[in-house]
Amino acid sequence: MIDLSLISAISQVSPLSEQSCALFDEIIEERHLKSGTSLLDIGNIDREFHFIKKGSGRVYYLRDGRDVTDYIAMDGEFLGGVESLFTAVPSHKGIEVTEDSIIESFKYSDFERICAQHHDMERAGRKIALFAFLECQKRIESIRFYSAAERYGQLVDRYPDISNRIPLKHIASYLGISQVSLSRIRKGIQ
């Protein structure tokens, strides 16, 4: 069985000493959350970083009264309001769990404290930040260079069971299309 814990995921990015793992384990809180549970409300300052041990979640914002999905994460992936987390400015985005999930979270200030004393953790944090930047870059390029159908195909390649786990309205929103258009794309693929 694959270990989908936060410490395991970070150790795969960059090796951690036993001492760093032990300190990190002390600041991680595991929660079992129901679908629809908010991890960050729009207008609040994000102080925690989240890892989806099992389940799914999304980052979203409101535009002209419409709910727009900005980011989707599933089993073994990170989820956070990165801008607010790093700047301590109220977030214009929210984070919610999209199915019953097991989430591991830690306070960013506690993580920074460990990083200040343990360079292996600092290095891992830097690599995770780089990964987040590259994911954002891929998202921008996907929107610029691929059709909605191609973006949907990429999403299904990455998350084969996404349509069974995340509401179609959130998938359509993430792709920047209507649910009707998503339905047409799905019919064309199936």
Helix/strand layout:
Layout: H1 6-13, H2 18-27, E1 29-33, E2 38-40, E3 48-54, E4 56-63, E5 66-74, E6 77-79, H3 82-87, E7 94-97, E8 101-107, H4 108-117, H5 119-145, H6 148-158, H7 162-165, H8 168-175, H9 179-189
Antiparallel strand pairs: 1-8, 2-7, 3-6, 3-8, 4-5, 4-7
Helix pairs in contact: 4-5, 6-9
Descriptive overview:
It is a single chain. The chain has one domain: Jelly Rolls (Sandwich), CATH 2.60.120. By secondary structure, the protein is of the alpha+beta class. It contains 9 helices and 8 strands. Helix 6 (148-158) crosses helix 9 (179-189). It is 50% helix and 24% strand. It has helices at 6-13, 18-27, 82-87, 108-117, 119-145, 148-158, 162-165, 168-175, 179-189, and strands spanning 29-33, 38-40, 48-54, 56-63, 66-74, 77-79, 94-97, 101-107.
